[in-house]
Write a structure and sequence with these properties.
Radius of gyration: 29 Å
Order of helices and strands: HHHHHHHHHHHHHHHHHHHHHHHHHH
Largest sheet: none
Strand content: under 5%
Structural class: mainly alpha
């Protein structure tokens, strides 16, 4: 099957309200030729892209070699409608429109009116701290002043010039804070092991950057990116409580500036989701329901401890609804993960299972948007849901989605542990010979790479045959109990450091011991 056309992808990305707006916006635009609307409706109803089906439905256009013209025309109309649909909703676009209007008025000799539009643009850019747009506005003000016969023109030019210098400095510092965070954040998403030398280097460079950041008041974006950078450095240093506390500071910064939540709700949802994820990492699920409801744009149904600190967020709930395909996809991958993780850790297996059908549909709809790391996590969590429900066949089905793919840098920890969990599923299914072969294969692979962790070695040592078939229940139970003891000792030695798969292995052993009673 051919790859989907850009037009098909664009049509399928539209929200319901955007589709309705497109139909109204373009009513009568094509005169008697309504083929573009027919093509739009045809593609909208299509579940999967099928070029042959399109050629059959639009045979006349293909024969006349006019289909590409029709396709391009529809593509342009959709983009035009989207621009109109979002006009006034996007703060940056709104400010840019004001700047453009000021330019148009100036060219017509309407200098006073042009200055008024530029002032409106400046006030809005200052309110939302759009520094790079302020730079463009100030440059126009400088040009405007330089060529007008105003009183005190020199003083005014000097004032604007000083403003420009300060803006350039702010933009530079904002850029430093942002880029440092993205570099560190990328390492965090890959779950890459960072050596102490790498960590020391990151901290040293960041301290140098901080010395620059401290020289001026950072704009809104620079403030929260600075906290984010400190947060991920704390995470890499193993200070998970500090990591969570710093992420909460980021959320509070946004709550104190609700107009920024209105402007960028998708970005705020990301940081609030990250904060909840950090709480989950600490084993704290007391705020999960409240935060999930906030993310869904609903008032929390139960009281929560920091409601005062997030009063600005509560007032901004109406702005949290996703506004386009990109935001819908971002919202889906965050909320799907948070819900599954919350239900799994609070043992609400039934609620978790009810989410799976919705998650499957979302993973298909937002396939292009979901990042690879989050996709692997969702596969893993769904596998665990079925594992907890004793549905080993379905659990294995989802686990194989991790195992049967080319190796990549995303969530190496999941990719590494998945074969060990598969081994346990084989044992649950009574596939003892296959389990034994898998154990030997894993042992050989680890030995060849000379890269086996203490936890992995523990699993391989205990699953070398004593637990499998040809032994009485008494012998098997004894073997599982020995495994449980060694696993407990290992957990104590970890002293709270998270090890992926440790809890799952512990639960699996407990379930098997109960079966053998």
């Amino acid at each position: 099957m051919a790859a989907p056309s850009n037009l098909f992808v664009l049509v399928k990305s539209l929200t319901r309200s955007e589709k309705r707006y497109f139909t109204i916006f373009n009513a009568g635009q094509g005169g008697e030729d309504t083929n573009y609307l027919r093509l739009f409706e045809f593609l909208d109803k299509m579940h999967k892209y099928d070029k042959e089906e399109i050629q059959e439905a639009f045979a006349e256009e293909f024969e006349a070699k006019k289909f590409h013209v029709l396709q391009n025309y529809l593509y342009t109309l959709i983009l035009r409608a989207l621009r109109a649909y979002n006009d006034g909703k996007d703060i940056e676009a709104n400010i840019q429109n004001m700047i453009q209007e000021a330019d148009l008025l100036e060219k017509r000799g309407m200098y006073k009116q042009s200055a008024e539009h530029l002032n409106l643009a400046r006030r809005k850019a200052e309110k939302y701290e759009k520094t790079y747009l302020l730079l463009a506005i100030k440059r126009r003000e400088l040009s405007f002043t330089a060529f007008r016969n105003e009183a005190l023109m020199v003083e005014r030019i000097d004032e604007i010039s000083k403003d420009l210098d300060e803006l350039i400095q702010k933009i530079t510092l904002e850029h430093i804070a942002m880029m440092t965070y993205y570099k560190i954040g990328t390492l965090s998403r890959k779950a890459t092991r960072i050596s102490q030398e790498q960590l020391d280097s990151l901290k040293s460079k960041w301290q140098q950057e901080i010395s620059l950041l401290g020289k001026t008041n950072l704009p809104f974006t620079g403030k929260y990116f600075r906290f984010l950078t400190d947060a991920y450095l704390a995470k890499f240093s193993g200070n998970y409580q500090e990591f969570s506390d710093l992420l909460f500071e980021v959320v509070k910064i946004w709550s104190d500036h609700p107009h920024h939540i209105k402007d960028q709700p998708h970005r705020f949802r990301i940081y609030l989701s990250n904060y909840l994820d950090s709480l989950h990492g600490l084993g704290d699920f007391s705020h999960s329901q409240a935060i999930i409801e906030i993310l869904e744009g609903r008032k929390p149904s139960i009281p929560f401890a920091f409601s005062k600190e997030l009063s600005g967020v509560i007032k901004s709930l109406k702005f949290l609804e996703p506004r386009n395909f990109n935001e819908e996809g971002e919202f889906f991958q965050s909320i799907a993960f948070l819900k599954l993780f919350f239900y799994l850790n609070t043992k609400n297996w039934g609620l978790a299972q009810k989410e799976i059908e919705w998650i499957e549909k979302g993973m298909s709809t937002y396939k292009e948007k979901i990042n690879r790391a989050r996709e692997l996590v969702l596969y893993y969590l769904i596998s665990l849901v079925y594992f907890m429900l004793d549905d080993t066949d379905r659990a294995l089905h989802w686990l194989l989605k991790i195992i049967n793919q080319s190796r990549n840098d995303h969530r190496r920890d999941l990719q590494r542990f998945a074969p060990f969990l598969q081994l346990m599923f084989f044992i649950d299914q009574g596939l003892y010979e296959l389990a034994r072969d898998k154990t030997n294969d894993l042992r050989r692979r680890m030995k060849r790479k000379d890269d086996v962790s203490t936890f992995e070695k523990l699993i391989l040592d205990h699953l070398k045959g004593d637990i499998f078939a040809h032994h009485t229940k008494k012998v098997q139970k004894k073997a599982f109990e020995a495994f449980a003891k060694d696993l407990h000792d290992f957990k104590v030695q970890q002293n709270g450091v998270f090890t992926l798969g440790l809890d799952e292995t512990e639960i699996w052993i407990e379930k098997n011991i109960k079966k053998l009673l």
